[in-house]
Amino acid sequence: MDNDTPRDAARDAPRDGAARDTPADAARRTAPGAPLRAAVKDHAPPPDVASATPPEAARATPPEAARATPPEAARATAMEAARATAPEAAGDPPPDAAGGAAPAVARQKAAMRARLRAARAAMTPGERSAAGRALRDAVLSLPETQMAGTVAAYFSVGAEPDTKELIYALWKRGSYVLLPLLRDDWDLDWASYEGPDSVRLRPDGRYGLAEPTQPPRGPGAIARAALVIVPALAVDGRGTRLGQGGGCYDRALARVSAAVPTVALVYENELVRRVPSVPHDQTVRLVARSRAGTAELLRLPLQPASSPHQTPPSGGYI
Predict the structure, then answer these.
(1) String of b and e for 214-242 (b: at least 16 CB within 10 Å)?
(2) C-alpha angle 191/195/200, rounded to 5°?
(3) At what angle do helices 125-141 and 164-172 cross, to 10 degrees?
(4) Domains by residue range for the chain, with CATH
(5) pLDDT in tens, the chain (318 residues)
(6) Residues near 44 by Cβ (< 8 Å), separated by ≥ 6?
């Protein structure tokens, strides 16, 4: 789902013992805007591991096993069918969910969404899969990811970059992973991911969303995450992200501390010069962009090209 895309619902307070580390120091040590390259690697399916594996044992899992492809059972036919139909096919949420954006800005956003959704729909399954693997490796290489005890992420649907292998790898290495639940008021609740079998399509089929089956922890649970991974149709150099139109992630990101890294995942042509915005639009602090089988990570906001601390995006803007 995407910043503006609807997601999920319910109560508050993550599991006792969930790590709350904030990797501010690691973030300061990393040069602003320096792109990190991550090559795509194919991985063999992991051995059968009980979903109740204690965190200590999970953290001891070798890196290669942690990045392995989840069991084939995770690729249920119904879930794959849902990915092909939503949320892009569903269009924008009702106008009242968009937070009353100025009419001119709302029209600009709608036009940009239509163009980007069409470009995503034209991608082949192979291109999407390669992009998902590259983005997975890029995010896993972040120092902030390696230090994070609790990670808030999202289960991709439609033509979004595939996050299933990323979520599985985070869980296997011992992170406590929170996934969103879309509420009726267009806010997001959160529940824990406990392996591939802990995610199911919503009974009402809304937007083709797949959600965790664990008890909801409440909208405030995202505030306890040490890393937040969010969907986006586009991101600009200021960190402004374009979502699907419901404002879900603007509400959720407003609860996240400024010290917590927030990462948006996009395809190659989705780092743009400018995303139309209004004051309530929330920004992200990093963008991971797939590029021809690899991915680059950029810290935001981007510095002027003349700055010695910022390497311009190697693939440029659109």
Answers:
(1) bebbbbebbbbbbbbbbbbbbbbbebbbb
(2) 65
(3) 30
(4) 24-44+58-299 (3.40.50.10420)
(5) 444 443 343 334 444 333 444 444 444 444 444 444 443 333 333 333 333 333 343 333 444 434 444 443 344 444 444 444 444 434 445 443 444 558 999 999 999 999 999 999 999 999 999 999 999 999 999 999 999 999 999 999 999 999 999 999 999 999 999 999 999 999 999 999 999 999 999 988 888 899 999 999 999 999 999 999 999 999 999 999 999 998 999 999 999 999 999 999 999 999 999 999 998 899 999 999 999 889 999 999 997 644 444 444 555 555
(6) 68, 69
Tokens of 217: 């922890």
Cα–Cα distance, 89 to 159 (Å, whole number):
10
Tell me how far apart the alpha carbons of residues 75 and 133 are, in angstroms, rounded to a whole number: 15
pTM: 0.69
